[in-house]
Amino acid sequence: MSAFPADFIWGVATASYQIEGAVDEAGRGESIWDRFSHTPGKILTGENGDVACDHYHRYPDDIELMSRLGVDAYRFSIAWPRIVPEGVGGVNQAGLDFYDRLVDGLLAAGITPYPTLYHWDLPQALEDDGGWLNRRTAEAFADYAEVVVDRLGDRIENWMTLNEPWCSSLLGYMAGFHAPGLTGVENGLNAAHHLLLAHGLATPRIQAAGCNAGIVLNMDHMVPASGHPADHAAADLEDQKFGRWFLDPVSGRGYPRDAVEDYGWDMAVVRPGDLDLIAAPIDQIGLNYYSIRIVRSDSVTEADRTEVVAEPTEYTEMGWAVAPAGIIPLLERLRDYGYERIYITESGAAYPDVQDDRSYVDDQDRISYLDRHFEAVSEAIDHGVPVKGYFVWSLMDNFEWGFGYSKRFGLVRVDYETQARIPKASYAWYRDYIRSARA
Ligand code: IFM
Q1: For this structure, is 346 an active site residue?
Q2: Looking at residue 271, which CATH number applies to its domain?
Q3: Deepest in the core among 6, 163, 167, 280, taking most CB within 10 A?
Q4: What share of the chain is helix, strand, coil (3-state, %, to 5)?
């Protein structure tokens, strides 16, 4: 097995809407994902997160699962509509109480909490007022962040503001695949700007409470399809539109110029001073890594291509190429941008997960996926990248957004009929891996 620093953090990750359920309980307000998933035709399977893994009620059992797994840390997200049901105004103490119990339970089990403040479940009341197209949502987010950190910051050191703003802006407001289901390039980019502003406004408020703040970005490694300069240019542009669209402004480099031009974005929502706010210094950064993309320019014919890159041969059930080495250049980039505390905040895979008659899943494919990704991260560390931890996505099967419950990423199988948790082979493998890594 690969070598890791003695203080490397081994963890698992989940997110509120994907596991909690209890959508109408204890004063929680409606979120855009409640509304979206209840809209016919939006979720492939017609399912929703009303019950999900019922984690809201079963969190003690889930802490026990993590405890037996032997993880150091748990990355979860806080549901904004549980805390501020209308998005602004009244704070729901019962919502804070839930996370208070969760955090105390984790700490009692020796597991360090790593919360994310926004994993896509925007209060519907804010969406009714324009959602992320409205600048006021960014200000509301900073207020909400402060409320949560005031209550939990005495026990939690490391906070993340947003999870994968690419998804919540471009999938939610440009492509319409995610809540709230809006479309249009201008909408997507304006939403992205307000999300980044929300991050920038919340960051100093989290730090003012003596805590560390950061952001979680998803990035694919973009591979030019051949040695042809046009393929290289196409891959670079795709990279600017995906990872760098968020990484660059957060890192004080502004929006990537070619991408702004290619989109034809008028930047009318960007007010003087916004880019400075967005570039508020952060203490850590999270990378969610799943895949690579082979990018080809439309202007090149196959006959003109030399040094053609072979197509990947291995894919997960999501149709994403399995490419562990692709994480290395992304991590090296974060190092070169000056980040000194980098976490893999998500990485993992969905597979068909055939269960035997005792519901056991012998998921050797997931084990192999994780093993190879751990090895790649270890290699990046050898290259001088300060990777501090790895959170496997996900602790357990859960609501996979537009795919409903049809895709399973968990180390633990969830029987959605009975809510039974059945550890898969990968759970035992990860437990043993962590033990050996520590030894
Ligand atoms: O399930 C999601 C998660 O919510 C965000 N990152 C990617 C995962 C797999 O699609």
Answers
A1: yes
A2: 3.20.20.80
A3: 163
A4: 45, 15, 40
